[in-house]
Amino acid sequence: MKKSRKPLLWLVLAAVVMIPLSLYLVIGFYYRENYYPGTYVNGVYCTGKTTAEINAELQTLYQDMYFAEGILKVQDAYGRQYEILLSDIQFSIDYYSQLEELKNAQNPFLWIKGLWGAANYTVFPQISFDEAMLSEVLSQCGLRENNRHTDSLEASQVEIRREGGYTLFDGRLHVLDMDMVVGTVKEALLQGNAFADISVCYADLSYTEEMQNTILLWEKVDKFQRCGIVYDMGDTQIILTPEITSGFIMLDENGEFVLDETGSLILNEEAVEAFVDELCATYNTYESTRTFLSTRGDIITIEGGTYGNVIDREAEIAYLKEAFQNKESGVHVPIYETEAYHRGINDIGDTYVEVDMTEQKLYYYEEGDLLFETDIVTGNMRRGWDTPAGVNYVYAMQRNRTLRGETYASFVKYWVPVVGNIGIHDASWRKEFGGDIYETGGSHGCINVPSDAMGELYDMLEIGVPVVMFY
């Protein structure tokens, strides 16, 4: 009996269908817990991976990209930086819930779709940290110590301080708001930024009525001490800075400012007088002892003479009082009782006559350049007619003069008196000059110059030029 082949055929056909189908279903069950082919999340290949595995990869990727050092840097308005360890605020990054949502949206039994094209997804991390710990860390990282902040003592102070001159300390300006700081840092963390600029977290606080009155008083004080007066002392200028003029303001026994009936500050006249006295002590050069570098190379100490500056003390005190009363400013040349050719501490300057009585030489310098020199004869030392040492000056200039004494009458073409009746003049009666003539055959005290040389010197000089005379 011949058997039918149809059951075998059906079995073969069933096997052909069932085996692939079973395999497909097995793979489908596999993709119930794993992402199916062609899946990319934030650029990460996810095929066959679990949610936990992808979450770990994305966490590492995010950490390396934004917080590789595990530190958040905070910078204040003055460029100072502070570091916060993310571990100190329990900082964490998590994608799990979004990844799980993506996976659940995939039908595991349609996994074959992934073979025909890639599916790209973007997810954003859930960032979390302990806000209380963040506030605590920000309070302890140095921000509060380096900045006035809303709850600091300084932020409640507005006062006038004496620091050289008077300055206004205003603790209400540019105050750091710690609540704003916390909010700004939180925002930086949530945005994946490892740097937080808190320069926007400063504000000016409002003033009490007492603070406003202090500021009004400060404006008067600052205007007073910035008077704008500059003393022109010749070779230097003295600027009346707040360090100086702040001492001109009258204070009571408690160190408080004294105001007149109009509400204006009162000038401390004793302080003004003390300033002028110090000015005189420094710049009055009449009868002072000077050092002088001679042409022969020695540093000479010279006392006495008729040359020098003398400031008119009373006139200067009156000037300063009136200047502050009328709020004057500008460059001021002192009023002098006696004004030298050069003003300043170095009143000899660089234009002068030098009379070296040891070397029996006369030199004339103009603006530092030696323009003239000659041999001379000075006073007869044997007879006690020594020419006096000192710093004097040309106080007159005359032509064709007869010089007279008890025993002589001498005609000179050029007469330049420098101290009393002692002067510089030509001496046509002399044939020789220089050397040691002066010791026994010198003049009655004057400085004798060869006739031709004296005419040349006379044309160079003018009244007021200092004459430095020394041995």
Topology:
Blueprint: H1 6-30, E1 39-41, E2 44-45, H2 51-66, E3 71-75, E4 81-85, E5 92-94, H3 96-105, E6 119-121, E7 126-128, H4 131-140, H5 143-146, E8 158-163, E9 165-170, E10 175-176, H6 178-190, E11 195-197, E12 202-203, H7 209-225, E13 229-232, E14 237-239, H8 242-245, H9 269-283, E15 290-293, E16 299-302, E17 310-311, H10 313-325, E18 330-332, E19 336-338, E20 352-356, E21 361-366, E22 369-375, E23 390-393, E24 398-404, E25 409-419, E26 422-426, H11 437-441, E27 447-449, H12 451-460, E28 466-470
Parallel strand pairs: 1-6, 3-11, 13-18, 20-28, 26-27
Antiparallel strand pairs: 1-2, 3-4, 5-7, 8-9, 10-12, 13-14, 15-16, 17-19, 20-21, 21-22, 23-28, 24-25, 25-26
Describe the protein in words.
- The protein is of the alpha+beta class and 471 residues long.
- The protein folds into 3 domains: 6-70 and 91-129, no CATH class; 226-348, Ubiquitin-like (UB roll); 352-470, L,D-transpeptidase catalytic domain-like, CATH 2.40.440.10.
- The chain has helices at 6-30, 51-66, 96-105, 131-140, 143-146, 178-190, 209-225, 242-245, 269-283, 313-325, 437-441, 451-460, and strands at residues 39-41, 44-45, 71-75, 81-85, 92-94, 119-121, 126-128, 158-163, 165-170, 175-176, 195-197, 202-203, 229-232, 237-239, 290-293, 299-302, 310-311, 330-332, 336-338, 352-356, 361-366, 369-375, 390-393, 398-404, 409-419, 422-426, 447-449, 466-470.
- Strands 22-21-20-28-23 form a 5-stranded mixed sheet, covered by helices on one side. A 4-stranded mixed sheet has the order 24-25-26-27, covered by helices on one side. Strands 2-1-6 form a 3-stranded mixed sheet, with helices on one face.
- Helix 2 packs across helix 3 (96-105), helix 4 packs across helix 6 and helix 9 (269-283) crosses helix 10.
- The longest helix has 25 residues, at 6-30.
- The radius of gyration is 49 Å and the shape is elongated.
- It starts with 5 loop residues before the first helix and ends with a strand.
- The relative contact order is 0.07.
